[in-house]
Amino acid sequence: MTTETEEYDVVVLGAGPTGENLADYARSAGLTVALVESELVGGECSYWACMPSKALLRPPTALAEARRSPGARQAVKGPLDVAAVLAHRDEYASYWKDDGQAAWVAKEGIDLVRGHGRLAGERRVTVDVPGGGRRTLTARHAVGVCTGSRAAVPDLPGLAEAKPWTSREATSARQAPGRLAVVGGGVVAAEMAAAWQALGSRVTMLVRGSGLLARMESFAGELVAEGLTDAGVEIRTGAQVSEVRRPDPSGPVTITLADGGELVVDEVLFATGRAPRTEDLGLETVGLTPGQWLTVDDTCRVTDVPDGWLYAAGDVNHRALLTHQGKYQARIAGAAIGARAGGQPVDTARWGSHAATADIDAVPQVVFTDPEAASVGWTAEQAERAGRRIRTVDYDMSKVAGAGLYADGYRGRARMVVDLDRDHLLGVTFVGYGVGELLHSATVAVVGEVPMDRLWHAVPSYPTISEVWLRLLEKYRSTAGT
Ligand SMILES: Cc1cc2nc3c(=O)[nH]c(=O)nc-3n(C[C@H](O)[C@H](O)[C@H](O)COP(=O)(O)OP(=O)(O)OC[C@H]3O[C@@H](n4cnc5c(N)ncnc54)[C@H](O)[C@@H]3O)c2cc1C
Ligand SMILES: NC(=O)c1ccc[n+]([C@@H]2O[C@H](COP(=O)([O-])OP(=O)(O)OC[C@H]3O[C@@H](n4cnc5c(N)ncnc54)[C@H](O)[C@@H]3O)[C@@H](O)[C@H]2O)c1
Prior knowledge:
Layout: E1 5-13, H1 17-28, E2 33-37, H2 43-48, H3 50-67, H4 72-75, H5 82-92, H6 99-107, E3 111-114, E4 116-119, E5 124-128, E6 134-145, E7 149-151, H7 159-162, H8 167-172, E8 179-183, H9 187-198, E9 202-207, H10 218-230, E10 234-237, E11 241-245, E12 253-257, E13 262-265, E14 267-270, E15 274-276, E16 310-312, H11 323-341, H12 358-361, E17 364-367, E18 372-377, H13 380-385, E19 390-396, H14 401-406, E20 413-419, E21 424-432, H15 439-447, H16 452-455, H17 468-478
Helix pairs in contact: 1-11, 3-5, 3-9
Bound molecules: flavin-adenine dinucleotide (FAD) and nicotinamide-adenine-dinucleotide (NAD).
């Protein structure tokens, strides 16, 4: 076993979107960087999450959009070409090969170290390299943990032996199962139910709560559920799975529910949340508990480790489990590491260059179902829980001229949450066709804390779906003081 020690300014564990960006920003600050990856450079997002899932969802949505447009509808003659969709997905997952991203890492002057990395005490990392052997890396300034998350599957009788799908199989499967059960009511569950129903499966969602997308405004889950039901998905709420059996490994799965009911399907997807990839990371060598999410300050420094050399960004710190937020944290942490290494001032004030702020107060998210659900910032309930004095304004998006032109029979709803004391928006939610691309306007308004009277002067183009902004603001002004 090799024990040679190699020294870098910064060692980054995990080359997902967060680790790649942290390495890049630390390198841009003039630091030497080693980036350690045990699977594929690009992480979950590139191969088993964002990219393949969106590649599966876009073609059915495009087809549905054509069918909602008179004239185009008549030109759509046949069904979805499932083989072509799956081929498109394979291309977007780079055929599960990371040559392109590894080449980018090399071009940026970052040293890629392949293998499983673990902390081995302060500023020290060991890497078990493929084919045997171990490398030891030390970091002069910082170690960044960007090891992401994995699917969390509950401990139910028979489940492990039944080999359920997780998000990995749901995004990489080569054919649609005849009958698919989806357990969970979050984003993965809703998106994957939409995708596989469109690709030919008969999908049943088993949701233990009362509806979908519980973290968004409740109308988001309701309208997305309506869309899924219209597409043929059966949604059972209040459905708690108690047991799963697959006696013949190549046969069907029997799911038993807590109320005694049974469901027989060809595959079952557990989309029941995420767990941190920290259980085999040597956390115990720096006084932390293996398997925990890593708590960080706003510069992404792990708070429970003295001397401020350990950073954690992306899913693993549990602040906002989204690629764009992991990359944002990486930009902030990379800049903070660079500034601290160079003895420069660090601006940790809210919205400062070294303080992640948006990942708590202004997280944008698009759920790529049909209709889409898009939100940024706080829901009315979150704002009220935080003790803010708010007013919510809702608008039926079907009344917007641009929405009617966009799709026949447009269905959708928008809400803005106004902070009455600070006079700006705390959150905005849009649900409807094509609203994903509308979301960034709301993100700018929330992050910029644009005063409501100034927002009035942000005139949306006619006739676009964005005109919903005008309608919301008109309603807000006409009901002022109510
Ligand atoms: C089905 C699905 C769809 C999604 N869709 C979206 C979307 O549309 N938009 C969006 O913003 N987010 C989406 N997400 C969330 C997004 O995938 C994650 O937020 C994102 O991947 C987190 O990036 P990360 O770099 O923190 O972690 P990851 O992408 O998980 O990368 C971590 C990397 O670390 C490596 N690693 C782990 N442990 C070690 C170790 N000990 N040594 C070396 N390497 C290690 C892993 O192999 C991996 O490559 C989706 C998630 C799922 C499951
Ligand atoms: N388009 C996007 O931005 C996108 C897409 C997919 C995933 N993601 C991100 O990935 C993360 C993971 O998504 P997710 O959907 O797996 O998690 P989630 O936390 O959003 O949803 C988990 C769901 O599973 C249910 N659940 C949890 N434990 C259960 C159990 N034991 N039995 C039955 N139901 C159970 C929860 O009630 C919830 O409905 C999210 O934070 C999400 O933001 C984002």
